């Protein structure tokens, strides 16, 4: 029997999975569809399957016939797995930032892997937050990029839901490092302005044009200079450096994940397809505040843009970097770092 990471077997399963995934995602509680290995009684069977992820796995006798996932589709096994996913940014009421267990970190040069967030307050209301009011948000700087259009504009890559957050964003919105959640102040800590963004069926991305007063390095804090880009492959060992969990590692389990995520804030449920699924080794791979980090292979080549994960930290998800760069019309900066290098990210005293 072919293994679930056999590319030929995946090529056979992929069109069937794509044909049924929207139907499955429309069913109550379904949050994702992927290609994986069927697990029975807690043990891997070695049998490739279309894996359906649900917020809560219910006994078959509690599920209506119209909601049941068939055991097979065109001869391909299915598996139903309980796992819920969330976007990994931090959201806190304005005024409550002080005293939070956020990293006290301030960098002289802007690199990937640092705390960032918009200066503007975000107006939120239930069910997105418990209490209506104005909130601050935080995520992670990903990697320095430059405009493909010939202008040479230097920008920082991150997620749409980190830099834009809701449907009230505007080009020119100011961004701070550290974020306001982490003690940053505007305009003192502004490092750039929102240049462009995309929230498509494959990419949750944004780029922030750096202000001239802030220096930058084409590197990731604690990981070093970026060596370029690479395509994600199953079994690849990867790392990321995020605002909250710092450097973590894992392995790519799939490049076929489809997720339905609640972006709230006037944006609603969005479906992202052909996403990279990463299994943490050890747990966690990411947590709230890590959105926007880039995922790199062992040679420090960027393979993805991290944006979401499971609530328990076992799984993380990233947009394929090729699609990110294409949709945002930018290229990765791989020039040698300045003498300060990625070690310029220094932790401030508490």
UniProtKB/TrEMBL annotation:
InterPro entries in alphabetical order: Pept_S1A_streptogrisin, Peptidase_S1_PA, Peptidase_S1_PA_chymotrypsin
UniProt entry tagged with the keyword Transcription regulation: no
Any GO MF annotation of the entry: serine-type endopeptidase activity
BP terms from Gene Ontology: proteolysis
Top-level taxon of the source organism: Bacteria
Keywords: Disulfide bond, Hydrolase, Protease, Serine protease
Family to which this protein belongs: Belongs to the peptidase S1 family.
Protein name stated in the entry: Serine protease
